[in-house]
Amino acid sequence: MASAVAYKERQFLAVIGDEDSVTGLLLAGIGHVTDPPDAQRNFLVVDAKTENSTIEKAFQNFTRERNDIAVLLINQHIAERIRHAVDSYSEAFPAVLEIPSKDHPYDPEKDSVLKRVRRLFGE
Amino acid sequence: MSGAVGREAVFPTRQSLGLMKSKLKGAEIGHSLLKRKSEALTKRFREITRRIDEAKQKMGRVMQIAAFSLAEVSYAVGGEIGYQVQESAKQARFRVRAKQENVSGVFLPHFESYTEDSINDFGLTGLGKGGQQVQRCRETYARAVETLVELASLQTAFVILDEVIKVVNRRVNAIEHVIIPRTENTIKYINSELDELDREEFYRLKKVSNKKQEDTAAADREIQAAREREAEKQLTSGKEKEAKEKETPDVPDVLGEQEDTDVIF
Amino acid sequence: MEGLFFNVNNGYIEGIVRGYRNSLLNGQHYSNLTQCETIDDVKLQLAPAYGDFLGALPPNPSTSALAGKMTDKLVAEFRYLLAQATGSTARFLQFLTYGYMIDNIALLITGTLHERDTRELLQRCHPLGWFETLPVLCVATNIEELYNSVLVETPLAGYFKSSLNHQDLDELNIEIVRNTLYKNYLEDFYRFVTTDPDFKGTPTQEVMAEILEFEADRRAINITLNSFGTELSKQERRKLYPEFGKLYPEGSLMLSRADDIEAVALAVSVSSDYKAFFDAVGLTQGGGGLGGMGGSSDGKSLEDLFYQKEMDMSKIVFTRQFTPAVVYAWMRLKEQEIRNVTWISECIAQNQKERIGNFISVF
C-alpha cells in the first residue's frame, strides 16, 4: 500500500497524447504550468516526429519524478509505443489511464490494466 | 507437507506445550479472520474489476463524443486552435482531490474531481468566432474527464486491492500450510516426548516400588522370624503364666450379643 | 460604364474564378458523400473535384490530412489568381490574405511570448497568410524585437501601429490582440473597397461593402456573446468592434453595454436579418415569428446561421459581373466546402452519422 500521505499532494492530471486529445483535455481545464523558473507543463503533445525516448522521458517524469500528479492520461496508440514502460509500471500513484484518441478507437485488448483483469479471471 | 515444515525448537516441557496450544489456537483464529478478510476483499475486487470493464467501455464512448465536439469546434472556428490552447494553459481549472475509503481495513483512495472556477484560461478562445462551440466543447470534455477520473479511482483501487489481496492470501496460505502444521507438529512432538517421559517415570516408579516391595517382604520375613523366635521363647515360659490367665474375670459383652430391649419413644 | 474596360485587365481572372465556382460541390455531391462508409469512399467521391491533390494521401487518411490537401488546392488556385492579377485587383486579392496573416502572426506572438522555437510554428501557419518575410519574424527572441520586425517586415504594420504597442503584445490576451488586428483589417479593407478609385461606385463597392458590413456585425455580435463571463471589460470589448456595419454606431453602442443575451438581441434588432437569427435560435423570448428564414428547427446554432447567411451572400455575388468580389465569394465558398467535407468525414470516421447533415450546402 502506497504511503498514505503521498497522495494528498496529488491534485493534477497529466496527459501524453496527440494534438486533438491534448487540446480537448486542456479545454476541459487540466492544463497546468508550474511557476517559473523551472516551468514544467503537465502535458506532452506527441506527433509522428516525436521520438520514443521523449515520450518515455515524459512518462517517467510524470510517473516518478513529479509528485503532484494524481492521474496520467495517455493515448493508447502512444502507450503502445512505450508499451514496456507502461506495462512494467505497477504503482498505484499516479494512476496511469489509457484513453482512446480520435483516430484510434479504444481497444481493450491492449490495455495493460485490462490485460491484468483478464489474466486474473483466466479469460 | 507436514513433514517438510519441521517443528519449532522448544524444550518438550508442559509449559511449552501450553504455549504451543495457545499459539495454535491463535493461528486458527487468525486464519479464519484473514480468510474472511480476503473473501471480503476479493468480493470488492471482483466488483471493481467488473466496474472497470464497464467504465472502460463507457470511456470509449464518452471520449468519442468529446472528440466529436472538438471537431465541431474546428468546424466553427475554421482552423486550428490546438497551439493556442496549449500555450494559454497556465493554471489547472480541473483538479482532483484524493479521499480514502476503508474496505476491511484497507484504505482505498478515491479521486474526486473539482473545478477551480476562478481559473479560466480559455475564456477568450474563439472570441471572434466559434466561442460558443468552444464553451460547449469544454463542458463535454470536462464531463469526459470526470469519467476518466472515476475510472482512475477504480483503477487505483484495483492496483492497491490486487496488492493487498496478494499479501493477505500469502498470509492465509502461510498460516494454513506452514504455521499451523508446524505448531501441530511441535505439539505432537512435545506430547510424544512427554509421553515418553511419563512412561519412563512409570517404569522407574514401578522399579522403585518393586524394590520397595522386595525390601518390605524381606523385612517382614525377618520380623516373622524374629516373632517366631520370640514365640518359641514364650511358649516355654507360657505354661507358667496360664494359671494366672484363668483367674482374670470374663469381660462383659459390649458388642450387643444380647438382644437390646426395644426402646419406645 | 464600369464594365467597359474591366475585361482588359481582369476578364481572365473572373473567367477562371467562375470556372472554379462550377467545380464546387453541389447538393448531389454532398448527398453522395453522406452515404460513404469510410474515408476512402469520401476520397473517391472527391476525386473528380480534387483529383491530383488527394492522390498522395495514404489509404484511410485522417480527416485533418484530408482537409490539409483540400486547402492545398485552394491555395494553389488562389496563388494562380494572385499571379495573374494586376493593379487594384491585385491589391484586392492581397487584402484577402491579410486575415490569414493576422492568424499567423498571432501564432508567432504566442510562440515568442512563451519562448518556444518559432521556426516550428512556421509549418502551422496558414499557407494563404504566408508572405516572404514571415520566416524573418522567427529571428526575434523577445516580444519587442518581434514587434519591430512586424512593423518593418509585414503588410500588417498599419494595423499594429495605430492601436498596439509592444507592451500590449506582452500584456493583453492574444485573442484581444488578434481581434484588434482583425478589426483594423476589416476597417481598412472596407475603406479600400469604398474609396479606391477603381472600385468606388462599381459593383465591387456595392457587394463587398455589404459582405464586409455583415462580417463586421458578425464579429461584434460574436465577441459580445463570447465575452460574457470572461475578464474582458466593456471598454475593452467596445474597442474590438469594427467601426462600420449595419449595427454601427447605435447597435454597437448597445452591444457594448450589453450584459446578457437579451440585451444583445435587443441591440441587433435594428437589423431584421440578425433579429431573425436570434429569434430562430431561441435566444430571445417572445420571438419566433420570423423563424422561417433560418431553417433553425434542426438544432442550428447562431454561428451556423451566420455561416449560412455568408454563403447565401457569397452565392449571390456570382450574379454580378465585372468585379473581383467573385474571388472573395469563391474563397469563402471553397472554405465552407472544406469545412463541410471535414465535417462529413469526421462524422464518418467517428461514427456519428446522425448529425452528418449538419453542413451548409448552397448549390
UniProtKB/TrEMBL annotation, chain A:
Keyword Glycosyltransferase (UniProt): no
Highest taxon of the lineage: Eukaryota
Function, as annotated: Subunit of the V1 complex of vacuolar(H+)-ATPase (V-ATPase), a multisubunit enzyme composed of a peripheral complex (V1) that hydrolyzes ATP and a membrane integral complex (V0) that translocates protons. V-ATPase is responsible for acidifying and maintaining the pH of intracellular compartments.
Alphabetic keyword roster: Hydrogen ion transport, Ion transport, Transport
Originating organism: Aspergillus lucknowensis
Any Pfam family hit: ATP-synt_F
Compartments it resides in: Vacuole membrane
Record's protein name: V-type proton ATPase subunit F
Protein family according to the UniProt entry: Belongs to the V-ATPase F subunit family.
Principal place of residence: membrane
Species classification: Eukaryota, Fungi, Dikarya, Ascomycota, Pezizomycotina
TrEMBL record, chain B:
Keyword Lyase listed: no
Chain spans, region Disordered: 210-265
Skewed-composition ranges (Basic and acidic residues): 211-249
InterPro entries referenced in this protein's UniProt entry, alphabetically: V_ATPase_D
Keywords noted in UniProt: Ion transport, Transport
Sequence ranges of Acidic residues compositional bias: 256-265
Lineage top rank: taxon: Eukaryota
Family the UniProt entry places it in: Belongs to the V-ATPase D subunit family.
Protein's name in the database: ATP synthase subunit D-domain-containing protein
Automatic annotation (TrEMBL), chain C:
Domain of life: Eukaryota
UniProt keyword terms in alphabetical order: Hydrogen ion transport, Ion transport, Transport
InterPro entries documented for this protein: ATPase_csu/dsu_sf, ATPase_V0-cplx_csu/dsu, ATPase_V0-cplx_dsu, V-type_ATPase_csu/dsu, V-type_ATPase_csu/dsu_dom_3
Keyword Ion transport part of the UniProt annotation: yes
Transferase keyword on record: no
Function: Subunit of the V0 complex of vacuolar(H+)-ATPase (V-ATPase), a multisubunit enzyme composed of a peripheral complex (V1) that hydrolyzes ATP and a membrane integral complex (V0) that translocates protons. V-ATPase is responsible for acidifying and maintaining the pH of intracellular compartments. This subunit is a non-integral membrane component of the membrane pore domain and is required for proper assembly of the V0 sector. Might be involved in the regulated assembly of V1 subunits onto the membrane sector or alternatively may prevent the passage of protons through V0 pores.
Family (UniProt): Belongs to the V-ATPase V0D/AC39 subunit family.
Subunit text: V-ATPase is a heteromultimeric enzyme made up of two complexes: the ATP-hydrolytic V1 complex and the proton translocation V0 complex.
UniProt-recorded name of the protein: V-type proton ATPase subunit
